[in-house]
Amino acid sequence: LPDRVLRAMERPMINHRGREMPRLLEEIISRLKVVFGTERARIALFPGSGAGAMEAAVVNTVSAGDRVLAFSCGFFGDLFADVVRAFGARVELVRVETGGAVTPEVVAARLASDSGGRVKAITLVHNETSTGVTCDVGAVAAEVRRLGHPALILVDMVSSLGSLEFLFDEWDVDVAVAGTQKGLMLPPGIAVVCVSERALASSERVTTPRRLYDWRPVFETLDAEGFLPTTPPTSLLFGLREALAMLVEEEGLAAVYKRHHRLAEAVRQALAALDVGIVCRDPARASDTVTAALTPPGVDANAVIRAGLERLNVEFGAGIAELNGRVFRIGHMGSLNDLETIAVVAGAELALALAGAPVRVGAGLAAAQCYLAERLSAAERDDDV
Ligand code: PLP
């Protein structure tokens, strides 16, 4: 969390139905549209987390008994399937092997057999946080539309919004969801949902019981009064306005995406130099927001995490579900710069060494620094960081 964002939140409350609120929401929503890559869609904000935003996507587009294909390559893709299942839809989970990505071919193979167009919706995860694999949502959506299939495309962007490029209108996505706590550089607390016209129309027809996550009152109240229908986490809205100004107005999204790619690549080069593998198998699909590193045989990944936390004050993410003990995850999303990334790389190799991994301490650091030196000087020459 940038200090600026924290400071922006340190303000007395305003009346959530008072004079300042409509302008605050209008500023936030217009900038969120830029981050989602949309001019046509609508943005709804709810109190809640990423899973809350997933629930909003589901209850407004899917009825009990509808057929839904949930494409997953990890824990959070499976979670999306669970959320849909909880509301009574007939969900088929299409699980790609861990380390792989959901591809247009995988999706086409399942949808092509549905010539009657009975599948109501498909779910995708743009960035699978448990494995560090990014889905080419644009290519998958293009394949769905090429097949002429009417399924709504619901996308989890929890660990990509504001860090990886997303083109909601151009890719013809129907619902994209996120929380504030990752690329938007805020504490958790707001569920953010981007809704196409098709999805909006669908919400009038679905029969799923819904209340807090019904997006219709959100749009009605915004249109009529400029407010949200329930009391929002107002402090977070102050922070969100600041964070979006930093991302959209100051650094610019193109530069933000390039920075994440550069820092992620530095981490990947460092791990390769240490001979530490990553879960993602296809380098073209490796995530620019999180890297899941595989500890060498016989080395407990949780011992690496403990060494980082207890000895170095650096916190790595644990391996989730079946990856626990084999994986530690390095987050490189949101507010992060080159020197901080170098520190994280140094921390990772020290923690690996402390946990007994046979790494050549310094090799990862040298690789990361050489890569960054090369990229930063190339950028200077081209005036293109
Ligand atoms: N989807 C993805 C890709 C995530 O990374 C997470 C959380 O890390 C979630 C969904 C769930 O979000 P939350 O924990 O905010 O409910």
Give the SSE layout.
Blueprint: H1 3-9, H2 20-36, E1 42-47, H3 50-59, E2 67-72, H4 75-86, E3 90-95, H5 104-111, E4 119-125, E5 127-128, E6 133-134, H6 137-146, E7 152-156, H7 168-171, E8 175-179, E9 190-195, H8 197-205, H9 215-225, H10 234-251, H11 253-273, E10 277-278, E11 290-294, H12 301-312, E12 317-318, E13 327-331, H13 338-354, H14 363-382
Parallel strand pairs: 2-3, 2-4, 4-7, 7-8
Antiparallel strand pairs: 1-9, 5-6, 8-9, 10-11, 11-13, 12-13
Bound molecules: pyridoxal-5'-phosphate (PLP).
Pyridoxal-5'-phosphate binds at residues 49-51, 76, 79, 125, 129, 156, 158-159, 179, 188.
Query: In percent terms, what proportion of residues is strand?
Result: 15-25%
Q: If helices are DSSP runs of H or I spanning 4 or more residues, what is the number of helices?
A: 14
Which hetero ligands occur in this complex? Answer: pyridoxal-5'-phosphate
What class would the helix/strand composition place it in? alpha/beta
Please list the strands of the largest sheet in the order they lie side by side: 1-9-8-7-4-2-3
Helix content: 40-55%
Q: Rg from C-alpha positions?
A: 21 Å
SSE order in H/E notation? Answer: HHEHEHEHEEEHEHEEHHHHEEHEEHH
Mean pLDDT: 97
Q: What is the straight-line distance between the termini?
A: 22 Å
